Task: structure prediction
Amino acid sequence: MAHLTTVPTLDPGQDRTLILNMGPQHPSTHGVLRVILEIDGETVVRIMPDIGYLHTGIEKTCEAKFYQQVVPLTDRIDYLCPLTNNLCYCLAVEKLLGLEIPPKAQWIRVLLNELTRINSHLVWLGTHALDIGAMTVFLYCFREREDILRLFEAVSGQRMMTSYFRIGGLALEPPLDFFDRVRPFVDRFPSRIDEYENLLTANPIWMMRTKGVARITAQDAIALGASGPTLRGSGVDFDLRRDMPYSSYDKFKFNVPVAQEGDVFARYQCRVQELRESNKIVQQALDGMPSGPIKADAPKVVLPDREKMKTQMEALIYHFKIITEGFSVPAGEVYQAVESPRGEMGYYVVSDGTAKPYRVHMRSACLANLQLLPAMCEGRLIADVVAAIGSIDIVLGEIDR
Amino acid sequence: MPVAAPITDLEQLKAHPAIACLRKSNPPVIQEVKFDREEMSIYVAHSSIREACALLRDDPACPFNYLSDVTCVDWYPSEPRFEVIYHLLSIPQKERVRLKVRLNGNAPALESITSVWPSANFFEREVFDLFGIRFTGHPYLRRIQMPENWEGHPLRKDYPVEGYR
Result:
């Protein structure tokens, strides 16, 4: 593992090599990632990711907001899976408060989280294939993504920045026909995955660009902090949804796809299989959707229903107090991790007993996964760098925060 | 809303694999323990953080082989001002533990754990950048989020939310 700990400085003193700057404005860097390459001909000698171009200080901003005001900020971290971030933050604060969430709210959370995972994987698949030169897949993926975004709009009023989960439950009851709108999508989607696979899985060009490329062993992946499909593509069978369940994931049956090879193709296979598994979870959530309230019974934390505010004095008082003063959270600290489409998304929330979080830290799966890049690319061709960056599925909003 | 009181008695918590592992070490590295909201926190002496991490990683009974996260909390103006926080995960045993190190506000420095987990590289750079804590033995301790010539460390509590004007 010597190559993992060596000093990543670039020394232009050797006359054989050349320093090449890739990004931050480059279509295959998925946002504003800058990669500094030291190349010898077409071969990458050293590679150094340079981040921070999208740093907006969200962690600092959180410290100046009430607990409930942080939810919209969490959308902006990983803009491809806003609901996963909403969920992770809400779970962390609910753990601090000791809140019980009603089953229906938990199941809707699971349903929407899996739709988000499909949405995020579709963007990944489309752009990753586009990077490597398969243009058609992109159009197919975005066709299905559009359906999911319409579902998000129906449920939350927003296509991307959903902010639909609240501390203590959900913002609103989903529309009456919502589940009937999800069902046709779920029925149709497996055949759509077959379409993508028809275009890619057995395609000789795709295989040549991905098989054996950017290989990483299980040992290196763990040492470098990889998580999610990047880790499972190297043969480590670990998924937080199954192994450390949250939000009633233990009530769902699904497989965790694992591939052994650790190359770009293995990570591709894991994610495509995950599309099918997520679809299964959505199906189960639809079939077994419990009835009941969608908000916890905690009047000091959860905003009252509009109707109650018109008839009950207490409800109006609580509403006024939550909006103007927030609610205080007992002092303590909590680390809550969820399986985001990219890996382990963690929120570390520290409370000092007031209505504003003392510290909110987001553990970014992409930041850790990005550290794999040197181990994947050094000694390989420049063209493989593009495949490697695509295969770890980075979102710069989450890396830089 | 019932939240159970935290347990801080080391004897009650000694069955936890991380504590059992660290208790065997010599000299003792555990300063304090806290079990709160189903999560275990262990305060470790700041001189022995690297040793504690290595012990936990190589523990045969419950190897905490994965470093989830490194971060920091600034308790300004109280002293010791900083708490550096390590979240470890045991992938085989599905167990988490949190290590904490207290640091004084005056020139805070700590031994880097990049030799135990290379993944600490970016996490420690971020803590250095945003809190100004030096990690000795880090291979490349440079700012990661802020520009190279930035003044101050934005996540410190004495740094205004809107920045210096």
The first strand of chain B starts at residue 30 and ends at 36.
